[in-house]
Amino acid sequence: MQPMGWSFRDPGKDYSRQTQAARLLALTKALSVRPILVAHSFGAGAAAEAAMLQPDAFAGLVVVSGAVGLNSHLMGKALPWSMGNPSVREFAVSATVTNPYAMRPLLKLFLHRKKAATDAAVAMLNHPGTRPGTTAALADWLPSLLVPPKGALSTRAEGWKALTLPLAFIWGDRDTATPIDHGEALARLTDAPLFILQEVGHIPQIEAPSEFQAALIAALSDL
After folding, report:
1. For residue 37, what are the β-bridge partners?
2. What is the rounded (10 degree) CA torsion for 96, 99, 104, 105?
3. How much is the pTM?
4. Most CB within 10 Å of its CB: which of 20, 56, 72, 223?
């Protein structure tokens, strides 16, 4: 998802949930595909938004530990004053996400199985940080993480209730970033299956890859 990894960076610095959803829809149109969309964590917000805006564009949606911010539009949360300064945001990103020495402790914060923060996993996550402009791009993106989207369908219960495409959820029962009760709430709203991974935190594809793959295959089979 833009501007992560090796992806596109918007010169206009627009990484709002609705714009990211529009990018997903444009991609499916450009490729002439109707995929089952699998979306993890923060990316699940944009994926759900796209599915709600144009459900016929997708054959299904699998949400993995989704950070969708259900009902966050009711909170009126604003960007912290200090984060309004681009230089402060760049400093915060450079000290954490794009600091190669900070990646392992940062990754461990999201894992229940701490041993999964292997050298290979850390190297994989650090690699895109070597790309010029990464710190600035992530600093431009950061407000979309810190402030709930305004006017988004995917933060609203009625948006989820209205979804008609095939849907499934996968969640770690030890997730502290988006706790399991978030997944349970979405499953209740949609009457969709919830696959719970035992003793797993927020990033199952790194933390418990074989268990995650089995759950994903089961979810896709159901869909």
Report:
1. 61
2. -30
3. 0.94
4. 20
